[in-house]
Amino acid sequence: MGLKVKFLKKQEHLFKRGVIFCDPCYLKFPSDSEDSWDDFCTVYFKNGQGLYEINGAKLLVMNTANGDGCYDVETSLRITGGSTCGVDAGMLCVFSLKDLSKISTLKEQAFTDQDCLGQIVKDFSGKVKINENDFIGDHELRLITS
User: Residue ranges of the domains in the chain?
Assistant: First the structure.
């Protein structure tokens, strides 16, 4: 296994200094293995929804209630990035903006340039938790897939 993925068995996490929401299949994990997406999926399908660690970064990952499609982040804070979170793997994740370089070869600009890649909430600091197939958090944050 090239990508080191650890399941942390929690359903919530306290994030600081901005967050990104996206389908984890879009992340382009930094690994010397071409099978890094398969490595992630092997661990995810064994453990299910929850908090994961990859290269020291924490990702809260959940299934969507209705599979692939487009889902919107709602919050009282300003959202940048695409107009929506596109989903092609039936799952969504949230992680700290500061950890992007630890888990992806993508740059922040990719999320603002490509519609449907994901959404960024730069001013978010607070807790996000999984509530069945939805993300709920501080600052009236909601990403509803059900």
Answer: 5-144
The identity of residue 35, as a single letter, is: D
0.85 surpassed by pTM: yes
Secondary structure of 96-140 in the HEC alphabet?
Answer: EHHHHHHHCCCCHHHHHHCCCCEEEECCCCEEEEEECCEEEECCC
**Which residues are paired to 86 by β-bridges?**
70
Structure tokens at 14: 């306290």
Distance CA 77, CA 126 (A): 12
Q: How far is CA 93 from CA 32, 51, 117, in A?
A: 22, 9, 12
The predicted-structure confidence for 91-114, as pLDDT tens digits, reads as follows 999 999 999 999 999 999 998 888
Q: How far is 95 from 15, CA to CA, in rounded Å?
A: 7
CA dist list (Å): 78 to 18, 130, 143: 11, 21, 14
Q: In what order do the strands lie in the sheet with 12-15?
A: 12-15, 126-131, 134-137, 141-144, 73-74
Six-digit token pair at 56? 């020291």
